[in-house]
Write a structure and sequence with these properties.
Layout: H1 4-7, H2 9-78
C-alpha cells in the first residue's frame, strides 16, 4: 500500500517549493558568473580613458610651456 506521508499534498508542495528555490538560486549563480567579467571590462575601459586624459593634460601643458618659452625669447630679443 502507498505510504500516506508520501502522498500528502503539503509534502509534495514543499518539495516543489524547494526545487523552485534551488532552480532560482542556480539562475542567480549563473547570472553572477556572467556578470563577474563585466567589472573587469569596465575597469579597463575606465583605465584607458583615465590614461588618455592624463596624456592630453600633459600634452596641453607642454604646448603652453613651449609657447611661454617662445614668448620669453621674443620678449628678450625685443629689448
Amino acid at each position: 500500500m502507498d505510504d500516506p506521508v508520501k502522498l500528502h499534498p503539503l509534502r509534495s508542495f514543499l518539495r516543489a517549493c524547494e526545487n523552485r528555490k534551488a532552480a532560482a538560486m542556480n539562475v542567480l549563480k549563473d547570472q553572477r558568473r556572467r556578470e563577474a567579467g563585466q567589472a573587469l571590462v569596465l575597469f579597463i575601459l575606465g583605465l584607458v580613458a583615465f590614461i588618455g586624459f592624463v596624456a592630453l593634460t600633459i600634452d596641453i601643458g607642454l604646448v603652453f610651456e613651449g609657447r611661454r618659452g617662445q614668448q620669453n625669447a621674443a620678449d628678450s630679443a625685443s629689448r
